[in-house]
Each structure stands twice: as structure tokens, then as C-alpha cells.
Amino acid sequence: MKIVTTTSVFPPCYPTEKAMERLAAIGFDALDLAFDYCVQQADFPYMTPGWRDWAKRLHEKAEKLGVSWTHSHSCGDASATDDASFRVFETCSILHIPYTVIHPVFAGKNGVYESEDEFLSVNIPLIRRLLPYAEQYGVTILSENLLWGASARPEVISRLVKEVNSSLFGWCFDTGHANCFGIPPGILNGLESIPLSLHMQDNHGSLRDEHLIPGDGCINWKELLDTLRAVGYGGDLVLEAHHQSLEAEDDAREDILRELLTRTGKMRDYLNKR
Description:
By secondary structure, the chain is an alpha/beta fold.
């Protein structure tokens, strides 16, 4: 069970190689590549004709640093048709990243999908459209519980996985998104499918998606850990707790990230106790 942090603990288009060096030095086991941050500047390597060479350099650097790329966050939702969104799959293959989170489509021309059936009817064909790319490049697509209408309900995302019915599609439980709606971690008990990944982040439960370090909000983390153990969760501890680091002065980031790693390390120790 690796402790993984998103590269979005640094600002959009922060040099990925430098982010890797700093995060490896702090002691993170593995990294989650924030493609959604890579597309915010036209001359960022991911957005240039040399993107494959850039990805190969990141793979080589990860081997030298002794870290691995294990997760990623796509730059588009399930309806995306732009080159940057499809490029995610090949980049993941080059970096040996097994998972990429792609947001489900939560709204249409008439507004947010509140109906579970409407949400599923839109997203099932969109996800299935992406499965050939997932198969070609050996990447598993993950959806996640979001913040709008039916997309906010973990049981709906779990059902989406069941309906798509592919070994190349699963879901990621976002702790902070659930907490915004007062949904406790125990929701994972009895769902139709177990999450394959997590977005671990905290908030104060007031519909503000704060992405805080676990323990700085009001989530019951012991309940989450006990639930993960009960449902047989076998994935990594993937952190999307980036706002405090992102908003800090650069010379203050190391202390914030060390605290993030320390707290998550204690959680892993708890999970590993039998």
C-alpha cells in the first residue's frame, strides 16, 4: 500500500521534474500526475509536439529517484474529444500508470442531472466509448463521486461501475466530496462495487471543497480506515490534499508536505495492523 500524492500540490504548469525531485526527497512512495494542471499553459511540455519525449524523461527520472507513477487525473470529463484528453492514455502507458480518474458528466443542456437513471444513461455509453483506448494502453479508467446532483452520491458511481461491467473501469472514492454532503465513510459498506482508489482530502463539511490535509477538517478518519478494512480495500492511499501547499509560499511547502506524509503514514500503519 503506497502513499501517493498528486502533483497539484504545486501550481499549474510547475516543472514536473522538479516536483518529482521534491516529493521524492520528502519521502512519498508514488505520484499522481495532474494532467488537468498540465494543460493550463500552451507551452507546457504535455501540450507540445515533444510530449512523448517528455513522458519518457519522467519515466526515467522516476526510476532514478526510486518513486513510481501510479495514478493520474485526466484533463477532461467522459465526454471529452480533444487531443489532450485522449493523449492521457498513451502518456499513462509510457509512465506505467495503471489508473486515470476521468470525471463523469454531471450536467447537460437542461442543467445538472439529478436523476440517477438520467445520469447513468448519459455516462454509460461515454465510458464504454473510452474502453478501447483503455485496453490499447493498459490503463484502468476510474470515475469519482463529484459535487453536483446524482454525481455526488457514491452509490450512483458504484452502480455506474456495475452497469459498464468492464475490468477496465472502476471508481475512486473522494472523501472530501462525500463530506461536503455529510456522507460518512461508512457509505462504502454494502455498495455494489468497492473503490479501486481514493482521493483523500478533508474539509469542514459546508459544501466547500477545501482539499485540506486529513485531520484539518471534520472527517472521521478512523471510521474511514475501519471501513476500508471492512470492505477489503486493497489500493493505495492517494492524497488530493493540495490546497494548503498550493496556496503557501514556495519555501513553506516542504513542511506542509512532510506533515501530509506523516499523518498518512500513521493511517497506513493503522490499516496494516491485524
